Structure prediction request, 491 residues.
Amino acid sequence: ELDLNPLLMFTPKTKMRRFHWEHIDLDPNRIKDTVWHDIGQMDTLEQEVEFDRKGFESLFHERTKSKPKTGGKNNNSSEGNTDDITSHRIKTKRKAEKKITIELVESRRSYNVDITLSRFKQLSYSDMANAVLNMNDQVMGLEGIQRMNSVFPSKEEINLVSTYTGNPSMLGTVEQFFLTMASIPGLRTRMKNFRFLLEFSQVAPKIEQSLKSIIEACRLITSSERLRFLLRLMLFCGLYLNSGTKKAFTFGFRLNSLFKYRSLRSTDRKTTLLHYIVQIVNKHYQLDQGPDTHAVASSTSRDPGFLDNLRDGVKRASRVEMAYVESEIKQIFQSLSLLKVCIKEASKTDHPYPKKASEFCAYAEDRYAQINKDLAICHREFAEVCQYFGEKEGAWEEFFCVWDRFFSEYHRAEMDVARVLANARRLRKREMYEKQRREAKAKKDRPKKQQMSKTPQPKNTVARRSSKTTFAGAPKDSLESKMMLEAFDAL
Prediction:
């Protein structure tokens, strides 16, 4: 029996949205020596992470009333844009030649071969053959060998020109080229070996780099503490959502369920489960505590994300096709074996292989042995990483494409969360600026109001005029003063 903590059981206060993941069966042999076994031995996540159950339930609870969606289907009629295809006919006017040439090869084949041979203007047909015999890469490079191989005569064409008994100078250029190639026995095999010698310096480094990428990616994702924490948090959220169902009786989930975290939306359709997990991760690792609004806004493109140390290595590994690498290694072995046999047999003929062919053989054998050793390490590391995540062993690119796609989705969710935080902080900063501006304006206007209240008011001229005029309802003091003035005037 495995030493695991009991299964997490939750009792939400409301019915939660169901999370349809592909869980792993409760079989000890299925999770032994896997990441889920390591997670199952850890303490409860809530002892380490501040998980708001009430907030989680408010975001991802089941809707009580579902409004019917009314929307017509937009039938976008796709109009086929027909491209005008214009064919240019090349009309070649051949002047009547006095010299009569004999053409044995079919006209279309002769035309294609003639175009290819026109690119070897500085080399005669015998120079081309000698460059292949001596493996002279200064005269004939890889591109020249590839062109020459594309127009090399077949067995039927060699038999056709070999049966000609007339004057060879009367043959056409293509027939003379075929005749020169047919005069040297085993030239096609030598050309194949020469091509292998030239291509090996390009093929071998690519294979070695591909194997190195797979080995590094395997070690990256198995040793990442951040990835283990993220899977632990995702498992916790999935178990919480599926509480009370048979999907909650599990210690882990399949990797293809990673993409369902982004597709599960909250009840208000404003966020997803993956965005919610990103917020918890950022809060736990303090990844969103930017002091400046502009720094937070630009962090999405400049600062490393939570899983950026894994993204690059996994992306390189996802581009490596296992079948292609294995076929290339097999092709190296077959070509190397053929070259060794040809060197041994040609040593008894008039056209032995040059010394550089034997030296290349020894060098290529050592390098092939190292490549074969790296391939064995790669298969062993990949088998271990598949077992670690509880997955069946398949092609390299299929396994790492799952991780590459998930890391890209997680990074996009990080950018979305960072953008929302940046906008919120920018809005708070704008509100704070407006508040400070209003306070400064009020402070500036306060002395003017105080000065206006202290200035003396001018005398009321209307009241003075009313004191000289008698009208009903006038004050008592004003009437008495008027009577005194009239008495004074009478005296």
Observations:
- The first helix runs from residue 28 to 31.
- DSSP finds 19 helices and no strands in the chain.
- Residues 72-98, 290-302, 461-476 have pLDDT under 50 and may be disordered.
- The two ends are 134 Å apart (CA to CA).
